[in-house]
């Protein structure tokens, strides 16, 4: 063993002109190791994290090395084995640094030597279906994951290897994949997109590990070396100035991992780049915004392509939180999360977090989710995302309002869509994506076709659909060029928050403006959401406003004809083919209000919408045209009207209580008596919601001039109503 | 205050010849009070329970007394107010005993005086819809609840009242309802049924409180005084000798409450009856069997009419557990439950439990759910219920096999049905009942029509349906006369438990025998369920064997035609009208195996069934003919075959793992290679299940003679297979 460890700097590869600091130098530096070793036994979270790595490494060491010829898709044997391998390489590397036990170094060496024999002969993976096929895995993305982790293993044992071993591993295992990425898949490698971040991190971390400045430059500055692509371009292009990740919360989680890991590697090797301070410490803002875009139970809001199971305990965030602690200081409100994750990075940042958790003991400060307004786009001019929140912790209500840019290839056609959570539960859902992650039997765990045909379509969201088509014609290249537009927002008053946004290019010749208010009703103490969706067009259209309520229908205030014994789809394309038509209502003779009440867990909810003599209501259920049973059979209410100009005004309320243990069920009926548009002109719109108990809410919205000083007037019931600024929300006596 | 309390025995009513012990004498005796008072401050659970009663009482005292004219159904104001009132009366009574603060006594007096004015003028409740209408509530059952709790309040403050007040309250509030029950609703009062238990408890507890031996006798010995009805008849008739409650687990919970409370009142007043030792301490057995019929998460198995939300923390069990502790000693394995319930009865038994919880501190013994075989019927000859269990605590698998009697008015036509739970989750569900408890907007919280048209029908269960009809023609009076028949059972080997039962009168001319085995597979360590459903008839029939799997369909081994854009019901009546036909498969040319795989939480499950050239498979979904949206849209697989004699052989397996946090999804494919009937004769049936990995299971079952000494022979592939006894289960090499 001593033989292997001795005099190692001398064996450093001279393959490129890069500076050669002592190894390891990716997530930890050689100089970090003594402190980490001394800290063991002091901080349970660090101990547990290290034990987990030991377990991973020892389990791998106890089995014969298996580097199979790639064959299976995700969920299948070869896929899972190569995944296990790269985690084992990383773990064994850390174990070697912490113990200097040569068995770990030999394991890394032997496995990488196997890879060096396998990889040069590989062609595209037999299960590859995308335009960026992998070699070890069905997609290049997973090969990039492999590089990121395997590079760490190599880096950790670097100094134990002979020059011949260096050459064999670098030329056989690492360079072929790096060359494949940067040459054959050059346009993919240059993507400003989560794949591109992983690719850059993989190539760059290999670059540092094997001392190849050319690879490092490609990774940091892009293949043209001009920062139009590569890591800096990704830091510039994927986040808004306030840290919103353009692909949405689910992918922010996934991208933060390579962003933070590669940044750490850069900082360890080229501290002069000040990467953690880059763009106003954009990585800090990115982490904060990612965490804010989780629900009270830690689950990521499933905007764009997203799996709802994913929460903030996910592996990818652990490293980001540890690394952020090293560079930005420990965020005390994240210690509870660190404890819940049960892991930190075995690295200086992870040590800091583990120490802080130990010191805080049981008095951990809770993480605070608050109302936030994010912009989207590199300069913050491509619309944005509002999260209105009321109430504290588990009892919090969150209204998410999306008027961002499209969000790249995983974006949905959901402009001006809203989603509502209450006390941890989805009340108005975003469907997320149609995918069973890594489940081999569901098309190898890939995104299923219904992600495109259903989940990404406009009708799958709680937003307006014009003429049964998706916004931007369902065309990504068009959608990418047209973001939503923030109109005004006021989140200063926790009991009455209002946001308004526009989308004037989603449908040709149609102007959309949506204004939402989250109000805590002073009488019931429960949340009310007011929603004013104004549409103006040059010609008549059919408008559908769907509401994907989650729960069991309890009652409706309106009559309907039910298709109880024979059922057809609501439409034929653009997602409508996936909706069963369960019931329809005919328009009523006098304008009024239609209310649908449902039960979700212990809570009743009602949606009430103003109706007129042209309003049809469609009760629908997801799941049609789904021969492979990929969809969940969840319900929706579509409010449908043929009109040229129209203001849809709706209110969503939480009411009553259902407690089967104590057998209490109270307040199962809506408290809304009337919902109406009082005034509508090009300049302004005024709506009101009358409650049975608790007075009336009246919301006035400016449509043309949102300046704070602008005076507005509307005529309501013959009276002049005046206000100044973009909106006025009044609660009138009860 | 002293004035009110002083010299009270002298004021005892002499209205009847009953012995007059000091009050209180229902759930607690006067002599218990000093010890209870001294114990406050020592045992947190007792303190918390008492504080909760104080809170209930003080909240009621702080509001004006409201005794409204009955008007609303469950969930409505008057219903909920009268319910709140009786709990307040009980709570205030206990608070008075514990504090001797006259405000509590005055509250009870004043409220009961209000009731004494209201009740005499009441006719049937305006929302009454059943044959046993209530006066204060829509059904007499709730009036009985009112008597049980109000009697306790009255009893507790009895000695503070003047003779005139006694007379007013007894004649105005209590006697009218008791007379109404025992005279107008005599046949209902005499029911051997949970309603009857509540009615007897109400009338009997009032009898003790007001010293009316006549009421006591009616309650204990029935209206004819001959023990054909009344409390003793209920103790005799509703439980099997081993304590199984004939209406099923959900109603056992509900009936145990009056059973234990009234028994306590009897014991406090007539200890010479030795009611807790009655029928071999049947109440102890009843409580044990009720608790055993909960799932690992404490939820009651939803057999017969049942709401799935109900678990063992339910209010009704708290009193039963406390009272049982007083008479049978503290069961240490129930202390964790007591802590979870967070309450005990403020009574000697509750004190004992609270003390034991305090002493056990954090080292609470877990409750053990084990394999159990219950008989049904007063003499244990009306079939029974088997629960086969494997694994420990949260990871336990439970297979419930029901071959009981019908179970009275809430019984389902589910003879030989099975239900499967695994690791806390429903894998093969029983639908339960269609009801939204106390939700006013859902028909006043009553059982909805779909309980009869869907949930109670045979096709709604995991058991065989002959000719699309329910067993016993769906007629309660026929079903009540015909129980299932236990055939044999062997639960000695925890890794391989086998139970067989028959039903030869469910369908005229059709003999049914079902044999189920719960096996822990030695290779995977996961459960396998083998199921052999043998049907013999005098003529051809259509047989459907439905499987209500819970979760998301992942894959099928068979091809099917999907009704993806237009959908009809599976049938027209007997529950079939509530099933959508989603897809059908045509018979295959060569016998084989059909497998359906689904995902439920983190676990994959597969059902594999042997198919032949006549087997059709129907993929169905609940929810058709449901214009009011009362049903849950859950899936089923129906295995359908037209035949005269047929052996359905199926295997249900748990396999793989789905973990979205760690992004691991492995083993998503079934491990079953072949399922086949090897031999079938009037004497015996032999089936086998071949696994891809892990060998073959072969199960041989005796059909005609289940004697342990009987030798059997079958010819399998030309070889003679011999065994002795009712079955042989072999696991053949792997």
From TrEMBL, chains A, B:
Segments forming domain Heparinase II/III-like C-terminal: 378-563
Gene3D superfamilies: 2.70.98.70, Chondroitin AC/alginate lyase
Keyword tags: Lyase, Periplasm, Signal
Places the protein is found: Periplasm
Superkingdom: Bacteria
InterPro entries (alphabetical): Alginate_lyase_dom, Chondroitin_lyas, Hepar_II_III_C
Signal peptide (UniProt feature, chain positions): 1-16
Main location, first listed in the record: periplasm
Residues annotated as domain Alginate lyase: 96-292
GO terms, molecular function: lyase activity
Name of the protein in question: Alginate lyase family protein
């Amino acid at each position: 063993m001593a033989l292997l460890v001795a005099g190692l700097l001398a064996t450093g590869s001279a393959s490129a002109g890069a500076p050669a600091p002592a190894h390891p130098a990716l997530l930890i530096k050689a100089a970090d190791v003594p402190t980490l070793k001394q800290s063991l036994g002091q901080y349970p979270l660090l101990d547990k994290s290290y034990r987990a790595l030991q377990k991973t490494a020892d389990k791998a060491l106890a089995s014969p090395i298996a580097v199979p010829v790639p064959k299976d898709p995700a969920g299948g044997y070869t896929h899972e084995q190569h995944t296990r391998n790269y985690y084992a390489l990383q773990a064994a590397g850390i174990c070697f640094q912490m113990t200097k036990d040569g068995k770990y170094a030999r394991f890394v060496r032997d496995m990488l030597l196997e890879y060096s024999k396998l990889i040069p002969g590989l062609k595209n993976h037999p299960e590859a279906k995308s335009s960026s096929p992998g070699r070890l895995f069905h997609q290049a993305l997973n090969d990039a994951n492999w590089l990121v982790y395997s590079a760490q293993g190599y880096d950790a044992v670097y100094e134990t290897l002979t020059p011949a071993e260096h050459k064999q591993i670098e030329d056989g295992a690492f360079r072929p994949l790096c060359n494949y990425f940067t040459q054959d898949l050059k346009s993919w490698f240059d993507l400003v997109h989560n794949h591109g971040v992983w690719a850059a991190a993989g190539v760059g971390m290999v670059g540092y590990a094997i001392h190849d400045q050319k690879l490092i430059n490609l990774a940091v500055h892009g293949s043209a070396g001009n920062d139009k692509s590569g890591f800096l371009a990704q830091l510039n292009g994927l986040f808004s100035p306030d840290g919103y990740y353009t692909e949405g919360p689910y992918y922010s989680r996934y991208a933060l991992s390579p962003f933070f890991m590669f940044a750490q590697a850069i900082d360890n090797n080229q501290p002069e780049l000040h990467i953690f301070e880059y763009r106003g410490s954009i990585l800090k803002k990115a982490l904060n915004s990612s965490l804010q875009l989780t629900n009270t139970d830690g689950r990521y809001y499933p905007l764009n392509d997203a799996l709802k199971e994913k929460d903030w305990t996910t592996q990818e965030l652990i490293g980001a939180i540890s690394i952020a602690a090293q560079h930005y200081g420990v965020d005390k409100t994240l210690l509870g999360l660190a404890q819940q994750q049960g892991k930190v990075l075995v690295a200086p940042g992870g040590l800091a977090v583990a120490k802080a958790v130990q010191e805080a003991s049981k008095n951990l400060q809770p993480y605070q989710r608050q109302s936030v307004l994010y912009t989207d786009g590199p300069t913050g001019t491509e619309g944005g995302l509002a999260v209105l929140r009321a109430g504290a912790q588990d009892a919090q209500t969150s209204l998410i309002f999306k008027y961002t840019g499209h969000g790249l290839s995983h974006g949905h056609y959901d402009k001006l869509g809203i989603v509502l959570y209450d006390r941890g539960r989805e009340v108005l859902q975003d469907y997320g994506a149609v995918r069973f992650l890594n489940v081999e039997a569901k098309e190898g765990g890939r995104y299923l076709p219904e992600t495109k045909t259903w989940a990404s379509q406009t009708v799958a969201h709680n937003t307006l659909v014009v003429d049964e088509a998706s916004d931007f014609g369902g065309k990504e290249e068009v959608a990418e060029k047209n973001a939503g537009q923030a109109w005004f927002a006021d989140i200063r008053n926790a009991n009455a928050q209002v946001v308004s946004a526009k989308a004037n290019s989603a449908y040709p010749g149609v102007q959309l403006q949506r204004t939402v208010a989250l109000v805590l009703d002073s009488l019931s103490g429960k949340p009310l959401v007011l929603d004013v969706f104004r549409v103006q067009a040059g010609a008549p259209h059919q408008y559908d406003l769907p509401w994907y309520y989650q729960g069991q229908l309890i009652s409706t205030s309106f009559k309907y004809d039910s298709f109880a014994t024979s059922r057809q789809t609501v439409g034929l394309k653009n997602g409508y083919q996936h909706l069963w038509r369960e019931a329809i209502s005919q328009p009523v003779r006098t304008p009024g209000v239609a209310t649908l009440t449902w039960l979700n867990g212990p809570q009743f909810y009602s949606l009430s919408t103003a109706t007129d003599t042209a309003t049809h209501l469609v009760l629908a259920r997801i799941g049609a045209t789904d021969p492979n049973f990929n969809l969940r059979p969840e319900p929706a209410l579509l409010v449908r009207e043929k009109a040229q100009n129209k203001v849809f005004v709706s209110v969503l309320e939480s009411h009553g209580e259902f407690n089967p243990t104590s057998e209490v069920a109270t307040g199962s009926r809506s408290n809304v008596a009337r919902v109406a548009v009082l005034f509508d002109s090009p300049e302004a719109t005024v709506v009101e919601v009358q409650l049975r108990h608790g007075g009336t809410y009246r919301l006035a919205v400016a449509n043309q001039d949102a300046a704070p000083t602008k005076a507005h007037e509307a005529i309501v019931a013959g009276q002049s109503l005046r206000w100044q600024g973009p909106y006025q929300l009044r609660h009138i006596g009860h």
